[in-house]
Design brief:
By secondary structure, this protein is an alpha/beta fold. Helices cover 38% and strands 26% of the residues. The protein has one domain: 3-Layer(aba) Sandwich (Rossmann fold), CATH 3.40.50.300. The chain has ten helices and ten strands. The strands form two sheets. The chain has a six-stranded mixed sheet with strand order 6-7-8-3-9-10, with helices on both faces. Strands 2-1-4-5 form a four-stranded antiparallel sheet, with helices on one face. Helix 3 packs parallel to helix 6. The longest helix is centred in the C-terminal third of the chain and has 16 residues.
């Protein structure tokens, strides 16, 4: 479904991502873990069309479609092809209501009846958002804003959903809830690429995982294999 080969990204002369290869099959949850500055967010931003001038190859095969080269495409094209990003920091619009934020996620669509259906789908996933549908986004709690960011990404009906640090800043109870919902979204047919510093939570739900260190993939395998790997345990799981 997604094939990244020899991806290299530079920022102001700094080699942030160094020739990584990543493969994602349809229906998987794949996670990238690593410390701040490891190149995780840069990688998914490149997939989303938000990084210009990278080198390497990013190929994507839409559902019932032919393989496409993503290099050089605009972010709006990525959304129309079925790739959506819930960004780090949530990036909701605080002056708009919960429901208005969700509708913005469907900005490439004009099927009004189906958009209304998908809003109800998001409310089923996140009942608290339904309770706060007329509340300004900026007044929501951190956990509710994270749910809104994920729901907004789902409104484009993506085939590949990319989540950048969905647990950042959340209380442990909310972290568990968010990861349960990620698993449910995957069960309902979405392929998920997850960037996450909470290695334990990410590896528990991942089919496949990659460890990035200073821009390079140093360890890869199934989520379960990495949970048992002594190098991962020592560096990311508290021994």
């Amino acid at each position: 479904m997604l094939d990244i080969q020899n991806l290299n990204i530079w920022y102001r002369g700094i080699h942030a991502v160094k020739g990584i290869d990543v493969s994602i099959q349809r229906g998987e949850i794949v996670t990238l873990i690593g410390a701040n500055g490891a190149g995780k967010s840069s990688t998914i931003r490149a997939i989303a069309g938000l990084v210009r001038g990278f080198k390497g190859y990013i190929g994507y095969t839409p559902y019932q479609g032919k393989p496409l080269r993503l290099n050089g495409r605009q972010p709006e094209e990525m959304v129309k092809m079925g790739i959506a990003l819930s960004p780090e920091g949530r990036r909701i619009l605080p002056q708009l209501t919960t429901e208005e934020n969700l509708r913005l996620g469907a900005y490439t669509r004009d099927d009004k009846a189906e958009i209304a259906h998908d809003i109800n789908y998001v409310y089923d996933l996140f009942p608290r958002l339904k309770e706060r549908r007329l509340q300004k986004g900026g007044t929501l709690s951190g956990g509710e804003q994270q749910m809104l960011a994920v729901g907004r990404a789902l409104m484009s009906r993506p085939d590949l959903l990319m989540l950048d640090e969905p647990s950042l800043g959340l209380a442990p109870m909310l972290v568990s809830e968010v990861f349960d919902i990620i698993r449910e979204i995957n069960r309902q047919g979405k392929t998920i690429l997850l960037v996450e510093q909470n290695a334990f939570a990410a590896l528990k739900i991942a089919n496949k995982a990659y460890v990035l260190e200073v821009g390079a993939v140093t360890i890869q395998g199934t989520g379960e294999e990495l949970l048992q790997d002594p190098r991962v345990k020592e560096a990311y799981l508290g021994g």
